[in-house]
Amino acid sequence: MRSYFLFCAFVTAFACGGQPTVTNINVATANNTNTNKASASVTIYTYDIVKTYPHDPKAFTQGLVFHEGFLFEGTGGKPSRGDDFFSSVRKVALESGKVLQKYDVPPEFFGEGITILGEKVYQLTWQERTGFVYNLSDFKLLKEVRYVGDGWGLTNDGTNLIMSDGTHVIKIIDPETFQTLRTIVVMNEKGQPLMKLNELEYIGGEIWANVWETGWIVRIDPATGKLLGRIDLNKLADDEMNSNENADVLNGIAHDAASGRIFVTGKNWKRLFEIKVRPK
User: Fold this and answer.
1) Residue 88, beta-bridge partner list
2) How far apart are CA 64 and CA 224, in angstroms?
3) Residue 56: CB partners within 8 Å, gap ≥ 6?
4) Which domains are delineated in the chain?
5) Taking Cα atoms as reference points, which of 223, 212, 210 lies closest to residue 184?
């Protein structure tokens, strides 16, 4: 979601407990001997930086996907509202950060999350309630679709789209009609709605979500909405913003399913990070 001229308001960590089972992703697992505590809390994860890559500092990142060796990125911007840049969909070389292909969204739309399903790229818009479907190979616009509510983050499980709207509710969406098939309600450790769920990625059978205006990524069970873990990336976000006065909040999660690599970045960040996640 957009966050013009806002600084991150980072939250403090919750108590550490048990962890979910994860396969084929760059995440270490932890032993848990306190089953009573696990029932009331979730595992807190930290990270190690594996590698750093360049990232376009003018990219107001709204969605990030790794696909067949390349990054695909959705960016926000709306000149009609005074932004400097158009929203876009981009194909980016991982090692250099060079934009290889780009489609500018019409200026009346503010671009949000993207995902790739089959040979199509899907993109949300923020408050315009309009989605775009592009041909993967050349970004040719195939169709526009309408949906209810705001558009924030977008991913897929291989069959359906998975969409956030800034609340604690995640929607499972039919990719052809954009109709909501079911909803997932996400609550925090205290049983309260976990709001501001933003950019999404489907990793190892879990939904990973940036929590807007924080340095946290949360891990969610797509069947039940249960909170499976929190990844503390506050230091990573702080370091980027301290070294880059134009950097905005953490936003952008991509997963290389073939190798298990995980990539993260943020809005107007100069760097993209490959990270390994481990219990804190």
Assistant:
1) 75, 104
2) 25
3) 92, 97, 99
4) 35-279 (2.120.10.30)
5) 223
**What's the pLDDT score for residue 18?**
34
Alpha carbon 270 to chain centroid, angstroms: 17
99 strand-pairing partners:
92
Q: How far apart are CA 243 and CA 198, in angstroms?
A: 24
Check: CB of residue 8 under 8 Å from CB of residue 241.
yes
Q: The dihedral of CA 63, 126, 163, 214: what is its sign? A: positive
Mean pLDDT for the chain? 88
* Predicted TM-score (pTM) of this structure: 0.86
- Ranges 14-18, 71-75, 121-125, 189-193: which has the least confidence: 14-18
Whether the CB-CB separation of 264 and 252 falls below 8 Å is answered with yes
Counting DSSP H helices and E strands in the chain, the numbers are: 2, 20
Measured CA to CA, the distance from residue 254 to residue 208 in angstroms comes to: 10
Say how far apart CA 138 and CA 88 lie, in whole Å: 13
Number of CB atoms found within 10 A of residue 93's CB: 14
Distance CA 184, CA 168 (A): 8
Q: What is the CA radius of gyration of the chain?
A: 17
Task: Supply angle C-alpha 212, 213, 215, rounded to 5.
Answer: 90
Question: Pairing state of beta strands 111-117 and 141-146?
Answer: unpaired
**What is residue 108's predicted lDDT score, i.e. its pLDDT?**
94
Measuring CA to CA, how many Å separate 52 from each of 29, 64, 240, 249? 23, 16, 12, 18
Residue with structure tokens 């558009």? 151
